[in-house]
Amino acid sequence: MKTLQKNSHYxxxxxxxxxxxxxxxxxxxxxxxxxxLCWYQRVCMYPIVGILALGIYFRDKYVYRSVLLLSGIGMLxxxxxxxxxxxxxxxAAAPCRLGVSCTTKFIEYFGFITIPFLSGTAxxxxxxxxxxxxxxxxxxxxxxxxxxxxx
Length: 151
Prior knowledge:
Blueprint (H helix, E strand, L loop, with lengths): L1 H28 L6 H22 L5 H23 L29 H35 L2
C-alpha cells in the first residue's frame, strides 16, 4: 500500500496520458468529431498531463492540488455528460446545439463502455491516485514534524 501511495502520481500520469492519447485517437484516427462536452473534458484532462509531468520532474509534492481541481471539474462535466448519454437527463438539457450531439453513440462495448464512460473512469482514477498521493504527502509531513518537535 505504501508503494502505491508513494508512486500514485506516476499512475495518475499514465492514466491522464492514456486518456489524452485515447481522445486524440478517437478524433484524429477514427475521425469521431468531439461534442461540446467532450471538448470541455479535454480542456480539463490535457493540462493534467503537463502539470503532473512538471510536478514529477520538479518533485513538487503539492502537485495534487492543481490536479485534483482540474480532475474534479472534469469529473463533474463527465458525470453530466453520462447522465445525458444514458438518458437520465433529457436531451433538451444538452449544450450541444450545433454539430455533434452529446448523445451520439460512436462506441458501446458490453452495453455500457462508451466514450463518456471512459472519460469519467479516467477522471475518477486520476482523483483516486491523487488522493492516495495526497495522503502519502500529508502523512510524511506529520512524521517529519513529530521528529522535529522531539528535538
